[in-house]
Amino acid sequence: xxxxxxxxxxxxxxxxxxxxxxxxxxxxxxxxxxxxxxxxxxxxxxxxxxxxxxxxxxxxxxxxxxxxxxxxxxxxxxxxxxxxxxxxxxxxxxxxxxxxxxxxxxxxxxxxxxxxxxxxxxxxxxxxxxxxxxxxxxxxxxxxxxxxxxxxxxxxxxxxxxxxxxxxxxxxxxxxxxxxxxxxxxxxxxxxxxxxxxxxxxxxxxxxx
Length: 209
Hints:
This protein folds into two domains: 15-60, Arc Repressor Mutant, subunit A, CATH 1.10.10; 65-208, Tetracycline Repressor, domain 2 (Orthogonal Bundle). Helices cover 74% and strands 0% of the residues. It is built from eleven helices and no strands.
């Protein structure tokens, strides 16, 4: 399987930028091939063709480096889509766009592979993996923010936007994340994705709108 490239700035001209990208690319390859436990900063440095000191200058720990990779993968999949609630726009198209954004992220094989590594590390060493899990959870706050804004505008009705957001994302992850993570099922087809997005929006709006 080809190695996914780390998200890149438009013009990585500085040497420090090029080294950072090389480190991220090398880390992605090492984590996917070795898993979290067996991956070392020494190995990442060798693969990136930089010194270990350079790796630590950019990333203080292996945990922070791994969390940064997952965060950037999330940002790369979502960069074209705004999460801001628009009071003047119809509610359902906004909700479906949020769900499609989530679906696009979960349908990336590189994200699934690295998420599997993260979950395995969480089971193996929950305290050590807590930072990376917390940083991933922060990236899901956008849906909660959107629901909170729609509730304040009177379009949704909930006393607990965070709970509603967890329910909404759970409907997507039940089909487009956990089967792939736990049972190695293939990514969903476009038709399957459309069905899940549409039915999830139906259920959510029926209850909360």
